[in-house]
């Protein structure tokens, strides 16, 4: 599972590196992301916004973070990050795609 997280983070980093252009303001731009995470009560989608240059640090630092439960009742801890993508992209994991279709935005 750790290798999957590493591969996703490398893919995100490579994508971000490939998208850097002559624009010096790109690193100060924010982008929205969604992660399919395993929590203490099951899997859910977690959304966050980050400056482009900080994305890999935030995605890798989500484990053990306390977030709101998907049902809106209480807080849960993230046990594992299964996949992260830009909010306008689709997940590759079948379970993540199904959960994403059910998630209210």
In a few lines, what is going on in this structure?
By secondary structure, the protein is an alpha+beta fold. 30% of the residues lie in helices and 33% in strands. A hairpin with a 6-residue loop joins strand 3 and strand 4 (75-86).
Could you walk me through the main structural features you see in this protein, from its secondary elements to its overall organization?
The structure is a single chain. This protein is of the alpha+beta class. The protein contains three helices and four strands; from the N terminus they run H-E-E-H-E-E-H. 30% of the residues lie in helices and 33% in strands. The chain has a four-stranded antiparallel sheet.
- Give the overall shape: globular
Structural class: alpha+beta
Average pLDDT score: 80
Residue share in helix: 25-40%
**Strand line-up across the major sheet:** 2-1-4-3
Tally the helices: 3
Keywords:
single chain, about 100 residues, alpha+beta, four-stranded antiparallel beta sheet, 3 helices, about 30% helix, about 35% strand
Break the fold down into its secondary structure elements and pairings:
Blueprint (H helix, E strand, L loop, with lengths): L1 H17 L11 E10 L2 E10 L3 H6 L5 E3 L6 E12 L7 H9 L3
Antiparallel strand pairs: 1-2, 1-4, 3-4
